[in-house]
Amino acid sequence: MGPAPHRFVGRVAQENGGFVRFRIVHRSFVACASAQAVRHILVSNHENYPRAFHSVNGVVVLGNGLIFNEGEEWLARRRMILPSLRTESVQGLCAISNEETRKILDEWELASRKGEPVDLLVQIYRLTISVMGRALLTSGVGREESDAFADNIRESIVLLRQRNRSLYNPPAWVPTPHNLRLRKVQRALDGFIERHIQEREQLHEASFPDDILSHMLRARHPDTGKAIPRGDLIVETKTLFAAGFETTGASLTWCLYLLAKHKEVASKWREEIDSVLAGGEPTTENIDQLEYTAGIIHEALRMYPPVHGLSRDALADDEICGMQICKGDTILLSIFGVHYDPQDWESPNEFRPERFLPGGEWKREAFLPFSVGKHRCIGNAFAQIEMLVALSLIGQRFELSLPDGFEVGENAFITLTPDRAIPLSVRLRS
């Protein structure tokens, strides 16, 4: 469980028909890697399965925003924020992604001419932070500021994992060394967001730029007509920023790692880009034609789902797929395990983007990278557009490779990331 919780939970569940009960000291867990059972828990009977204690720990850093909230308050807030991710504020996402990706790739070109590899994860995180920063805040964030934000998010992920695995967690207000570190990270993240909100509030509403923050400032509660309270606005902005860059950055990194390892797939990828874009840039008009590139993204999301698992607590007894669930059980839903279930996926350990091409026969209920049900990720379309643009521009300019025999494992913290730096060699295409 310790070194690889994502693999452990998925494996023990699959070995026992998709469900198995186990205990860690005083706490009873149920591991689940059945697509049918996951749908029952997250869709059919979701009212019986609120988020588990892991969410309480996450609130310490990110606050009680969309990721961790529940009930009527959560639903009203989701309705207020969702339009900001579906209106004009993201229609310019292609242009933003093009501009920010080209900046990063200019750095890659310099590295290529010097014969130096690039640090893939660091570079991609810088890209996704810059895209998220501009879409959320228009003015974006500088390199030093974005690096500091990313460092604080990474530290918070490590600290939260330690908290989730600890047998005893004193309340967050108790000044233990661990809690003090968490509070320091929280203050840094809140301060970053608050500075940008203060700058926006100094403008007259009529002169607000057309970005996600402006839409959230204008949003009103569907019942009361009130704006999002200041403290909650900081929490929700921080949540969108952190979740938006972290999960997309991890997913795009895995895409490029897989492309560097699979030359035949990379060749087909570049052929499609050349055919569809003909040397131009990806736009809202042609991006849907990049079907093989989209298949690469979907297959990477299947093999390395950024959120590898979810946890839910049972409020009442239940029966799922013949197994008795007891009130108080904590259910560990292994998205990773569902994505590798041989009953749903042929040769699940193989990288096969073709399985997601139009007309392909794959079980949609067994593909859960953005979750399912009422808590389905509201930024999934945003993330996929960003990745399509980035992959298209990278494929236009570079051939990718890794050192001979180079392999990485997975760090299963909050998101599933590579367990070491990836020295990616980028060679300009002739």
Task: Tell me the layout of helices and strands.
Blueprint: H1 5-14, E1 19-24, E2 27-32, H2 35-44, H3 53-62, H4 71-81, H5 88-91, H6 93-114, E3 118-119, H7 120-137, H8 143-165, H9 177-201, H10 212-218, H11 230-261, H12 263-277, H13 291-303, E4 309-313, E5 318-320, E6 323-325, E7 330-334, H14 335-339, H15 380-397, E8 398-401, E9 410-412, E10 416-418, E11 423-428
Parallel strand pairs: 2-7
Antiparallel strand pairs: 1-2, 3-11, 4-7, 5-6, 8-11, 9-10
Explain what the structure shows.
- This protein is α+β, with helices and mostly antiparallel strands and 430 residues long.
- It has a single domain (5-428), classed as Cytochrome p450 (Orthogonal Bundle).
- It has helices at residues 5-14, 35-44, 53-62, 71-81, 88-91, 93-114, 120-137, 143-165, 177-201, 212-218, 230-261, 263-277, 291-303, 335-339, 380-397, and strands spanning 19-24, 27-32, 118-119, 309-313, 318-320, 323-325, 330-334, 398-401, 410-412, 416-418, 423-428.
- The strands form four sheets. The chain has a four-stranded mixed sheet with strand order 1-2-7-4. A three-stranded antiparallel sheet has the order 3-11-8.
- Strand 5 (318-320) and strand 6 (323-325) form a beta hairpin.
- Helix 6 (93-114) packs parallel to helix 15 and helix 9 (177-201) packs across helix 11 (230-261).
